[in-house]
Amino acid sequence: MTENYSASDIQVLEGLDPVRKRPGMYIGSTDTRGLHHLIWEVVDNSIDEAMAGYCSHIEIKLHQDNSISVQDNGRGIPVEKHPQTGISTVETVLTVLHAGGKFGGGGYKVSGGLHGVGISVVNALSTRTEVTVERDGGEHFVAFAKGVPVEPLNQTGKSKSNGTRVQFWPDDSIFETTEYDFAVIKKRVRQQAYLTKGITITLSDERKHKEDTLQFYFEGGISSYVHHLNEGKDKIGPILSFEGIMDDVQVEIAMQYTHEFREHTYSFANNIQTGEGGTHLTGFSMGLTRVMNKYARENGLLKDKDPNFTNEDVREGLTAIISVKVPEPQFEGQTKGKLGNSEVRTITDRIFSQKFAEFLSENPNEARAIVNKSALALRARLAARSARETVIRKGALEGMTLPGKLADCASKDPNDSEIFIVEGDSAGGSAKQGRNRHTQAILPLRGKILNTEQSRLDRMLANNEIKNLVIAMGAGIGDTFEIEKLRYKKIVIMTDADVDGAHIRTLLLTLFFRHFKPLVMNGNIFIAQPPLYKLSKGKQTWYPMTDEEKNDILKDHDIRPENIQRYKGLGEMNPEQLWDTTMNPETRTMAQVTVEDAERADHIFKVLMGDEVPPRKKFIQTHAAKVKDLDF
Ligand code: 0RA
């Protein structure tokens, strides 16, 4: 370190020390999510540069040593001395918290904001960070270790171009893992490319022997996104796109109806996905409902006796992307995934409804097709309600007599109660004997439960296995579902480690995903992880859950082939083994089911459960061996 740096070192320590002490405060967590956060942080800076109109290419590389580099052809981070810190702007941006755009002078018109913690956080959490800036005719280089400059800013050559390259090596003493997931990155990069018109992003993975390079460029921006989401679906009308600016808030919407039942709406604020929605989504929804009702009434598509479309009616079969750019975004909610700026609601509503109403009145044929889709939804809703009322009147869920097949637990406190949904009566028998009777209930399911993808509530409740499950859970179903009444905090799916087991598990997940989504969101659903093998030698026994684990044990211990048992089903385990390996809360591993990626889950459910057989067949053939991973 040179003398020049003594003054700034103090600042660096003051600046970034808290980040290393409490990384979770800045990037959420130090697990794989937190790790990926580092990339988003760096890429978002380049995207900001693109949104400001200065950058057309971003190149992301995953290197063999698990470092990442992100290169852009933006203006380059300024290298001259920063008036407020006395050190160069590039070092300021890298070593002072929250010194992203603000310190740049001029900054960006709109910036990410959600992550927005700045590149300095990435720097603090990396063993090494290298920054190369091309700007003002020169190429400049600076390097840091754990946030502290170790190679001072230096001009390393001449350059006629502009841009910034950041490469960082995440600190493995901070992160639980430093292994990046290409699929996760790919998905997000694709999304960013859709949202930033005209940008080209390349992504390459050099960690594998075979280099993998992808390039994303979408001429049509979010309309291309809708096109992609609706691929293979039966569409109603063209992709509609609307945009406008009001009070510095920029609104872009692309949408298209399909003959599906489900809705696929994704909203973004400043290119950040708002998974919990917010004012932009509310504005859009309100506008959509109002315009559709008005058009339907004025054109006789809704009769006097018909009730109005609800918001759900007009969203059935809709695929839409709502993207807004807000100068000072406020993110709220549990995961900061909800846009809070109240002015955005009226702005989105106004821009959208005016243009959408215009479209409807100018295109009567398309308008009729779209409105009729909502009318169908309305009728189905009324029919389903009356069917449900009939079912409930007939007492399907009434009395709440617990099903005979349920071996309930003694505890009545949901917080320490669990229910195991077990495939087959024989495994059910073992589980009943092996369980902790005080806290664990067992519900055996026979055969394949009903395919719930397409079925309506009334039909589902006519199915005994499902009815048993619904009654056992005790919280109702559909829009009468009350999570507070849930009788078990943990609902554990326990199926065999074979293709049938995977099928039943997927069926159950579909059921939960479609009809008990709050349970999935709330983290109540688990998948038991029974072992694949039993290995024994003398008095020692091992229960490896994967082939790798088995091989590792075989490497270290001389085990005779006769002492390797592969479990084909849960039924092969005696009650004690089942308890020891799979059910005992002290020793078991369970996978918690999350809707981390609702879109992906949705897709898998659709392929596996939808009425088109060929894709399902192909999917199962391709993934049979790793179906478990794919579920979640
Ligand atoms: C501060 C000010 C300016 C640009 C940037 C930062 C900048 C940061 C990053 C991070 C990755 N790529 C980047 N590109 C640019 C504006 C400088 C000017 O006014 O010329």
Mean pLDDT: 85
CATH superfamily of the largest domain, by name, is: Histidine kinase-like ATPase, C-terminal domain
Question: Helix share of residues?
Answer: 25-40%
C-alpha Rg, in Å? 28 Å
Task: Write down the CATH class of the largest domain.
Answer: Alpha Beta
Which shape, going by the Cα principal axes? flat
Q: What is the strand tally?
A: 23
List the uncertain runs. 1-13, 100-115, 623-632
> Architecture of the largest domain in CATH?
2-Layer Sandwich
> How many DSSP helices?
21
List the ligand species.
3-[3-(1H-pyrrolo[2,3-b]pyridin-5-yl)phenyl]propanoic acid
How many structural domains does the protein architecture include? 4
What's the main sheet like? 8 strands, mixed
CATH topology of the largest domain: Heat Shock Protein 90
Oligomer: single chain
Give the strand line-up of the largest sheet.
Answer: 5-4-3-6-2-1-7-8
How big a fraction of the residues is strand? 15-25%
User: Termini separation (Å)?
Assistant: 48 Å
Topology readout:
Blueprint: H1 6-21, H2 23-27, H3 32-51, E1 57-62, E2 68-72, H4 89-95, H5 119-124, E3 126-135, E4 138-145, E5 148-158, E6 163-170, H6 182-195, E7 200-205, E8 212-217, H7 222-229, E9 235-246, E10 249-258, E11 264-269, E12 272-273, H8 279-298, H9 311-315, E13 318-325, E14 331-332, E15 338-339, H10 343-362, H11 364-393, E16 418-423, H12 425-434, E17 440-445, H13 457-461, H14 464-473, E18 490-494, H15 499-515, H16 517-521, E19 525-528, E20 533-537, E21 540-542, H17 547-556, E22 564-566, H18 575-583, E23 590-592, H19 598-609, H20 613-623, H21 627-631
Parallel strand pairs: 1-7, 11-13, 16-17, 16-18, 18-19
Antiparallel strand pairs: 1-2, 2-6, 3-4, 3-6, 4-5, 7-8, 9-10, 10-13, 11-12, 14-15, 19-23, 20-21, 20-22
Helix pairs in contact: 8-10, 10-11, 12-18, 15-19, 19-20
The structure holds 3-[3-(1H-pyrrolo[2,3-b]pyridin-5-yl)phenyl]propanoic acid.
